[in-house]
Amino acid sequence: MGMPKKLFLFDLYINGQTYLGQVEELTPPKLSLKTEDYQGGGMFGSVAVLMGLDAGALDMDVTFGGLVEGVIKMYGKGIDGAQLRYAGSYYDDSTQQTVACEIQTRGRITEIDWGSSKQGDNTQHKYPVKNTYYKLTINNETLIEIDLINLKWVVDGVDLLEEHRANIGH
């Protein structure tokens, strides 16, 4: 019987600056494909035809434990003005094996949500990020890389858009 690898420690870097101890939570992008149901003549059922990525497929949220001026200063800057790097260390308690997990993104902080403020209570500030770039690396192996601006989509070393780029002259 095996045990799942659980997140043990993590840090978040934004434009190279560490936010260790200040970031409470990160909700990574929920990679979702855009599909369209298609059922042609003679087909017994419909199939989901790939149409690219869903709108918002690279969106993420970062929650800090309070006021962080450096993040506020990035609000609204450039389509990829915020470069985020999540560095996580996952742990299998049955084998004592650790696994490095890194998510790199580039995008724009689109909202400043300070939630509610009450003296003596925890204050959480949430910053949604609309990303144009995503890269997932586990134990130094790149599993997924998506670059919307440069028309790149690589999964397990296979460039899924290589032929499409060639077909349109890129």
Q: Number of helix segments?
A: 2
- Would you identify the regions where 5 or more consecutive residues have pLDDT less than 50? none
CATH architecture of the domain at 6-31 and 56-145: Roll
**Relevant CATH superfamily of the domain at 6-31 and 56-145:** Hcp1-like
Cα distance spanning the termini: 49 Å
Largest sheet: 10 strands, antiparallel
| Number of strand segments | 12
**Over all CA atoms, what is the radius of gyration?**
19 Å
CATH topology annotation of the domain at 6-31 and 56-145: Pnp Oxidase, Chain A
N-to-C SSE series?
EEEEEEHEEEEEEH
Question: Can you give the helix content as a percent range?
Answer: under 10%
User: In terms of quaternary structure, what is this?
Assistant: single chain
Structural class assignment = mainly beta
The first-level CATH class name of the domain at 6-31 and 56-145: Mainly Beta
Note the beta-strand portion. over 45%
Mean pLDDT: 95
Overall body shape: globular
For the structure shown, list the relevant keywords:
6% helix; mainly beta; two-stranded antiparallel ribbon; 170 residues; Pnp Oxidase, Chain A
Characterization of the model:
With 170 residues, this protein is mainly β. It has a domain at 6-31 and 56-145: Hcp1-like (Pnp Oxidase, Chain A, Roll), CATH 2.30.110. Helices cover 6% and strands 50% of the residues. β7 (82-92) and β8 (97-109) form a beta hairpin.
Helix and strand arrangement:
Blueprint: E1 6-14, E2 17-18, E3 23-27, E4 33-38, E5 47-53, E6 60-64, H1 69-72, E7 82-92, E8 97-109, E9 125-138, E10 141-147, E11 152-155, E12 158-159, H2 162-167
Antiparallel strand pairs: 1-2, 1-7, 3-6, 4-5, 6-9, 7-8, 8-9, 9-10, 10-11, 11-12
